[in-house]
Design goal:
Shape: elongated
Distance between the termini: 72 Å
Order of helices and strands: HHEEHHHHHEEEHHHHHH
Oligomer: single chain
Number of domains: 2
Structural class: mainly alpha
Helix content: 55-70%
Number of helices: 13
CATH topology of the largest domain: hpI Integrase, Chain A
Strand order of the largest sheet: 3-4-5
Length: about 300
């Protein structure tokens, strides 16, 4: 099988079997094409068959990338793409060995996500001027949804009697997220008095071509845009006196951090956040550990030379 055809088949595997997003699939394929299709001369390129690749070939490729100034984070992603690809080739019987075995991944610094204290969140939740804005920000923090999940959530995606949100996340995966009673009450009031006003007859005309109306609507009766929602959160943060940059993702981080600080285990948090890999969730344990170190340093008598 030609290398290019193998890449097409691998892309289908990533999308259909692993549920990766189109952007992630595109990045993997681009990384692999860079390795498998290499220029011989200015006008000619050579394709490399996976069965002929050795660990030395991959190491030479990585060394070339390093000399070209490729940063460790990008190198780690390219190595991940190569590992996935050659495991796939082995499973398909296209090669009898994995040249990525014992390949070292460059160390990259783990950047801790920005978050907010509980006090800052409480001030932020009280700062929006309209009930619509308050309900949206409250729901985002109460569920830890990604901003895209919140803005595309349909009205039937919430079950207020059961206190649950049904979310379709990355890769089309469905998960259920519990709602606290205060958020349930706010959503009931929103659905009873606010949303009907926003989705008036005039607004419904604007939405008549939409096959999936969203739960939350702007003041014009249209679905919220990401840009509009970001601006709304920033206005609320300024009014709350929060000087650090606040975004929808910062609220998701705050949601996760606060749950861990109060005893939720990582596996449960992984399910609520919709992470496919628990390693993604583990970064929040570093946030809470950092907070713990700072607290001990501040209050322990021995930390002040006593």
């Amino acid at each position: 099988m030609q290398p290019i055809r193998i890449l097409d088949k691998f892309a289908l595997h990533l999308r259909l079997d692993l549920g990766l997003s189109p952007k992630s699939v595109e990045a993997y394929v681009s990384d692999l094409r860079q390795f498998l299709v290499q220029p011989r001369h200015q006008t000619e390129a050579a394709t490399i068959a996976p069965s002929s690749v050795s660990r030395g070939d991959i190491q030479k490729h990585l060394d070339r990338l390093k000399r070209a100034g490729t940063v460790n984070r990008t190198l780690a992603r390219k190595i991940s793409a190569l590992r996935r690809f050659f495991r796939f080739c082995a499973d398909e019987g296209l090669t009898d060995r994995d040249p990525t075995e014992k390949l070292e991944t460059p160390k990259i610094g783990r950047s801790l996500p920005k978050t907010l204290s509980l006090g800052e969140v409480e001030t932020l939740l009280a700062s929006p001027e309209t009930e619509n804005d308050r309900t949206m920000i409250r729901t985002l923090y109460a569920t830890g949804l990604r901003v895209s999940e919140l803005l595309t959530l349909p009205p039937e995606g919430i079950d207020l009697e059961a206190g649950l949100v049904r979310v379709q996340g990355k890769g089309g995966k469905i998960r259920l997220v519990p709602l606290d009673q205060q958020t349930v009450q706010m959503l009931k009031e929103y659905l009873t008095s606010v949303r009907p006003r926003l989705s008036s007859r005039q607004a419904r005309k604007r939405l008549k071509n939409s096959s999936a109306p969203t739960l939350f609507l702007s003041s014009h009766g249209r679905p919220f845009t990401r840009q509009g929602f970001w601006k709304m959160i920033r206005r609320a943060a300024l009014k709350a006196g929060i000087t650090s940059k606040v975004s929808p993702h910062v609220l998701r981080h705050a949601f996760a951090t606060h749950l861990l600080e109060r005893g939720m285990n990582l596996r449960s948090l992984q399910m609520v956040l919709g992470h496919s890999d628990i390693a993604t969730t583990e970064i929040y344990s570093h946030v809470t550990t950092t907070h713990l170190h700072e607290t001990v340093k501040k209050y322990h008598p021995r930390s002040k030379g006593g």
